[in-house]
């Protein structure tokens, strides 16, 4: 599973002012990321505003993304939700052409028990023809996938190959790293803690900041993979303020503002998400100048 070592980027979905998907801009962003040296891309994760795209739009974005990537880097599809039956049907109907894995966030809003979360992922694993990466993001879903559940899933289903962990609980991360199968991948789902997670044995990140600064992000992660944490720390420290600005008024609004300054797309979002304030936009522009 070495194709998931390194930097993955959760791609933003560009929109026109009328709310329609801007495919020309999406193509530019994809090529920007590949040229920036990332190892793989995630199409329609949370950063891609997947919650506000229709089923037909998601199919079109997945197909377009695969067509632009053309196997140049790894490719992962974000398929999740809080209706297990519906998610399983999406997984079964998904056109896997050009894709290497599925990333699936734990169910939001319902607040299932750990047994419910286990059964949810069991159903996905049994339906999937591609490897599955779990995604734990309690700040968005309202519930945590605890270490025992992650380890149980990792041992019970060989096609569940890793987890994108964005819970920020290092005690939990320690337990997963200790008890997981040797080939189960721990992937950071939170840019600011990528370096310390990799020091504990993580294999990389699925990044938001990487949408804008793929070269810096991927350079830092590769240094960590090489064990050169002293050099990685320098890049990590340089990225702190910029990364904070990517999230201060919500994601992916910050990333879209920065990408607009790079001339890659406009900063339109679909409600209920909105553009960052003028003050934050100015700070993003000023910070971005340090890297370009």
UniProtKB/TrEMBL annotation:
SUPFAM superfamilies, per the entry: Aldolase
Protein name stated in the entry: 4-hydroxy-tetrahydrodipicolinate synthase
EC number, as in UniProt: 4.3.3.7
Catalytic activity: L-aspartate 4-semialdehyde + pyruvate = (2S,4S)-4-hydroxy-2,3,4,5-tetrahydrodipicolinate + H2O + H(+)
Described function: Catalyzes the condensation of (S)-aspartate-beta-semialdehyde [(S)-ASA] and pyruvate to 4-hydroxy-tetrahydrodipicolinate (HTPA).
Gene name tied to this protein: dapA
Pathway(s) the chain acts in: Amino-acid biosynthesis; L-lysine biosynthesis via DAP pathway; (S)-tetrahydrodipicolinate from L-aspartate: step 3/4
Gene Ontology BP annotations: diaminopimelate biosynthetic process; lysine biosynthetic process via diaminopimelate
Active site annotation, chain numbering: 135, 164
PANTHER family xrefs: 4-HYDROXY-2-OXOGLUTARATE ALDOLASE, MITOCHONDRIAL, DIHYDRODIPICOLINATE SYNTHASE
Site (Part of a proton relay during catalysis): 46, 109
Keyword flag Lyase: yes
Subunit: Homotetramer; dimer of dimers.
Primary site of residence: cytoplasm
């Amino acid at each position: 599973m070495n194709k998931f070592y390194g930097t993955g980027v959760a791609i933003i979905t560009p929109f026109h002012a009328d709310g329609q998907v801007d495919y020309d801009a999406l193509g530019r962003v994809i090529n920007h990321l590949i040229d920036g040296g990332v190892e793989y891309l995630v199409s329609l994760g949370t950063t891609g505003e997947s919650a506000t795209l229709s089923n037909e739009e998601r199919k079109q974005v997945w197909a377009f993304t695969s067509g632009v990537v053309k196997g140049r880097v790894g490719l992962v599809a974000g398929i999740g939700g809080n209706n297990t039956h519906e998610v399983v049907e999406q997984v079964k109907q998904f056109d896997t052409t050009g894709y290497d894995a599925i990333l699936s966030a734990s169910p939001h809003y319902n607040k299932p028990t750990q047994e419910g979360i286990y059964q949810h992922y069991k159903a996905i694993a049994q339906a999937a023809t591609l490897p599955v990466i779990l995604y734990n993001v309690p700040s968005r879903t309202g519930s945590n996938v605890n270490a025992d559940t992650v380890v149980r899933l990792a041992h019970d289903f060989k096609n569940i190959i890793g987890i994108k962990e964005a819970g920020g609980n290092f005690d939990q991360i320690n337990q997963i790293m200790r008890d997981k199968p040797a080939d189960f991948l721990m992937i950071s789902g939170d840019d600011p803690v990528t370096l310390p997670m990799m020091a504990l044995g993580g294999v990389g990140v699925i990044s938001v900041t990487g949408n804008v600064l793929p070269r810096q992000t991927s350079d830092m992660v590769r240094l960590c993979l090489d064990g050169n944490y002293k050099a990685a720390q320098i890049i990590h420290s340089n990225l702190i303020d910029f990364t904070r600005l990517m999230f201060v008024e919500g994601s992916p609004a910050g990333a879209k503002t920065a990408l607009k300054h790079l001339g890659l797309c406009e900063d339109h979002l679909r409600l209920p998400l909105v553009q960052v304030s003028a003050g934050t936009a100015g700070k993003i522009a000023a910070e971005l100048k340090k890297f370009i």
